Give the backbone structure.
Amino acid sequence: MGKGKGIVSVAVGVAVGAVAGVAGLTAHAETPVVRDQASAQQQAVAQLAEETGLPSEALEVRTNSAGLTYGSGLVAEIQDGKMPDLVGVIMDDGQEGYVYSSELQGPMPANPEEAVKMMQERDAAVRAGVDVSRTLVATDEEGNPIGTFTVQG
């Protein structure tokens, strides 16, 4: 993970194209398709690593002993648009940790009208000088609390 505070979430169209290209392959057995999908994903990770200057290992998504996935949010598009359960962050104290992706996203609107209302309320709070940041519990890769991560408003 890079140094600095915050998270990075990047949609990588090129990587999606590489993974999506596998869907067009025709095979007579399941095993070659699985192998081709894994190979396409590895190629997409390698390409993303080259584009970002990060080592490929930093972009891998792993599974912990509880069955939760953890890793960089950069690979969400390579993972069929799914973020890992635990997304890598730089905690408030400058150390590396993870936060639950469900908490990172914050409250989700139920419909477009609610989304507009939420944005208007947030914008009004910011204009009024209200701190709209949220502090989340940061964990290790097993989900054990180790610090905090503040999502800036």
Q: What stands out?
A: Confidence is low (pLDDT under 50) at residues 1-34. The longest strand covers residues 145-151. The two ends are 22 Å apart (CA to CA).
